[in-house]
Amino acid sequence: MEQVLTVRGLRKTFTLHTVDGRQVVSLRGVDLDVAAGEHVAVAGPSGAGKSSLLRCTQRSYVPDAGSVVLRTEHGPIDLAGLPDRDLARLRGRNLGYVSQFLATPPRTGPAEVVAAAARRRGLDREPARDAAAEALRGVGLDEGLWDVDCGVLSGGERQRVNLAAGTVRPPQLLLLDEPVSALDPANRELALQLIGSLRDRGVAVLAVFHDLDAIRRLATRVVELADGHIVRSGSADEVLGVAA
Question: Signal sequence: where (predicted)?
Answer without folding.
Answer: none
